[in-house]
Design a protein that fits this description.
Elements (H helix, E strand, L loop, with lengths): L3 E5 L5 H12 L3 E5 L11 E2 L2 E2 L5 E5 L2 H10 L3 E3 L9 H8 L8 E5 H6 L1 H8 L4 E6 L9 E4 L3 H4 L10 E5 L6 E8 L2 E10 L2 E6 L3 H13 L7 E9 L2 E9 L10 H19 L5
Parallel strand pairs: 1-2, 1-5, 5-6
Antiparallel strand pairs: 3-4, 7-10, 8-9, 8-10, 11-12, 11-14, 12-13, 14-15
Helix pairs in contact: 1-8
């Protein structure tokens, strides 16, 4: 059985159309579906045909979209985005020595606001710190924040006092790349930023591939069978920026042919392992 790809409506727009075209070119079913169609108790249909609970499905969109699949549907693999493992408080422990943010603090957002004087004393550079959500639920965009706007930037965390944030010193960053890792190998890559500005280009330098391979050889722990690894250059060195879930991170100009083929092969094998009705 080939997997059915479900792509969240209204998220990636023209870029989603390219992915959908490649899915269909490879002979698989793909559909743009609204987030609400995956709510608890909903029965999803594509072209009038229901998607049964034993179907091999790959979800792709935002984290809430992927989470809806994980919580309310029995499809396998469903969505590759393990929220616990992709939380900074988990994977930093495994990949720490490769991280751009070598020195950091993870704390509740409300506590970071309350202790902002301490935060800026320890991590501040020119009265700025870097702040980002620790978890997959992006309550705010990770960025450098000035002391005067720190409380406002982290204010979304007040809705849930337990929401954790990462605080670190700002760093100068050159180019940044997104690499897709499947079964311990990089299967595709794309540049997505340069000097903090959006700059998309297919592929990455061989040095970036070698750096990723060295990380993967040294660290055996994985958040999912397939995931995203973001790498950057800073002051003449390469660093790991972060890990992201495959089902909720954009592909930029990664080779869609390779991505769709490899992800689909992996999904089929995982479905055959997990589904008692697999044939």
């Amino acid at each position: 059985m080939n997997p059915t790809w479900l792509i969240e409506a209204g998220v990636y727009r023209d870029e989603a159309d390219l992915l959908l075209s490649e899915i269909r070119r490879q002979g698989m079913i793909g559909s743009i579906v609204p987030h609400g169609s995956l709510k608890a108790g909903a029965s999803l249909a594509i072209d009038g045909q229901p998607v049964p609970p034993d179907r091999c499905v790959i979800g792709y969109g935002t984290f809430p979209f992927a989470r809806q699949i994980q919580l309310h549907h029995e499809w396998a693999p469903g969505a590759w985005c393990d929220a616990e493992k992709l939380d900074c408080s988990t994977y930093f422990a495994y990949y720490g020595k490769y991280l751009l943010n070598q020195h950091y603090a993870i704390m509740p957002g409300v506590e970071a606001i309350r202790q902002s004087d301490w935060v800026f004393t320890v991590f501040g550079v020119d009265d700025e710190v870097f702040a980002r959500p620790a978890g997959c639920q992006k309550h705010f965009v990770g960025r450098c924040v000035h002391s005067e706007s720190f409380a406002a930037a982290l204010s979304p965390t007040r809705y849930d006092p337990a929401t954790q944030v990462v605080i670190a010193a700002p760093k100068e960053i050159g180019r940044e790349w997104r690499l897709i890792v499947a079964e311990d190998k990089v299967i595709a890559a794309s540049q997505y930023s340069e000097d903090g500005t959006k700059s998309i280009a297919a592929g990455c330098p061989v040095e970036v591939l070698d750096f990723a391979a060295a990380i993967l050889a040294d660290v055996s722990w994985r958040p999912d069978p397939i995931f995203m690894m973001d790498i950057c250059e800073s002051k003449g060195r390469l660093w790991l920026v972060e890990l992201n879930g495959f089902s909720c991170s954009w592909l930029y100009q990664c080779d869609l042919s390779d991505v769709v083929r490899k992800a689909s092969e992996l999904a089929i094998r995982q479905w055959q392992t997990l589904s008692p009705r697999a044939t």
